[in-house]
């Protein structure tokens, strides 16, 4: 009786050969998955992963701070505490894949897309300033949103990207004649002035200022002679001053910045006063994440233009320094990519995107600290705002695509020669 029982016991389990086959199949699938993943990232360099890592960290950090800074305001408006955070999270879920998809496109595609992108973006902005579809989105002074049904977005953000691509494409084609202002500088200024002028027509001085900085930055990295750049800069500053004094709300902000003692503390200086209070309240290490007092309807635009104040209050001086270091690291990533390419198109586009994101970040922080008049620009990758986040991630995706194209190091000789 023992022998049959033993045989039956052995036959009830799976055969050893089947176990080995299953294990071998699983190992083969795992190896195939690794090989496929390796092929996807085969062309990526250290610059690709560094810029991607910094960007994703800033987006996640921004989501955390949007959740903290907007919870009270979201609830006060009848929504849940998580309403704005969930909306911003949705924009991040859309924007990050867009960034990764853009990073797969070849440089030739971006050169080809420059003109169509610019025409399309300008067309959308025309709808803002020339049709009833344009909206101020509750700001009462900036008509810079295109509202279609329940969806509102800013075409000016698309113009930033399109203008960067177009200037890069144009500069790449005119490399041999950049020092001649009528072939290099003048066409760029004509096209840029038309695009920027449409945004200016909507009354958004902050976005216009950033766009002017983008154009000047692109021209600088393109190698346009400094004397031409200085002349252009002086004209741009003069135009900005003239535009600023043509509307009472903008003039009030500037006068409040220049003469704070004479300004109305309940209007012009309210945001700056509450911002200073928040930063002072945070001291060195902050009051703790989620414990801000200013977000309780004391500080307007706490999750957008003045989110840096909430960061300083909840995370203290140390948290504010971390944000500054993140923008420094972002600039280092862009500079490394510029130094690694010999393509003038990639160099100009990367430099312009760096001026856009890092420059706008410094402007936002300068406003929060009271170093600049209130301009109404968000903190890139961190502030709440769907169009701004998606456009920033898209622009970074374009720059990431340049890291996947092997090229020789650019020594800067041509740029130095052009400036002479």
What does this structure look like?
With 420 residues, the chain is mainly α. The protein has one domain (58-419). It contains 15 helices and three strands. The chain has helices at residues 2-12, 16-40, 46-76, 83-102, 107-130, 155-173, 185-201, 205-222, 226-244, 248-258, 270-282, 307-339, 344-368, 386-402, 413-419; strands spanning 134-135, 145-148, 151-153. A three-stranded antiparallel sheet has the order 1-2-3. A hairpin with a 2-residue loop joins strand 2 (145-148) and strand 3 (151-153). The longest helix has 33 residues, at 307-339. The protein is globular and about 60 Å long. The termini are far apart.
Name the features.
420 residues, mainly alpha, globular
